[in-house]
Amino acid sequence: xxxxxxxxxxxxxxxxxxxxxxxxxxxxxxxxxxxxxxxxxxxxxxxxxxxxxxxxxxxxxxxxxxxxxxxxxxxxxxxxxxxxxxxxxxxxxxxxxxxxxxxxxxxxxxxxxxxxxxxxxxxxxxxxxxxxxxxxxxxxxxxxxxxxxxxxxxxxxxxxxxxxxxxxxxxxxxxxxxxxxxxxxxxxxxxxxxxxxxxxxxxxxxxxxxxxxxxxxx
Length: 218
Prior knowledge:
This protein is mainly beta. It is built from 3 helices and 13 strands; from the N terminus they run H-E-H-E-E-E-E-E-H-E-E-E-E-E-E-E.
């Protein structure tokens, strides 16, 4: 709507229920495509726990995480069990990571899921072992003791035009490790994903830092 319409008292029609009401960063769009620069993954396959997906990837799903105070995470889920995460502060891009899902654990009951979330070392210990490697907690530099998982909600959008069709709660902890001799870090995000009383899981996703030059978005 133009400024003249607003002066005449015209108002925009409200967005349909569940519609996406905010803009997406960097030109990403639901049902668009993105290719990641995988040169580093291909050059150092033995150094990494998981390589980034190759080729142009479809984006069938978008996740929005409002962290408050103008901060948000935008997750663009890809065809090949991976996602690009863009962190923003009042719409300014602060960081980009790409994560690849490497393992999903399905606790047999909600009680077992809650025990994992509240007590497992992988959701809060200062140092953990995973995939034969040592990882150090990134969310807090408090030494020694386990800290509680970070809790946040995510709204998922799919379709054309994209509509909100699912929600979940995350119980997450981010770890990192330095890649020896490469002046670069690899990340491990451990997350308890709670979709409701009868749908929950624990995921392990390994990631790398990216920049805008590493993305080909169409």
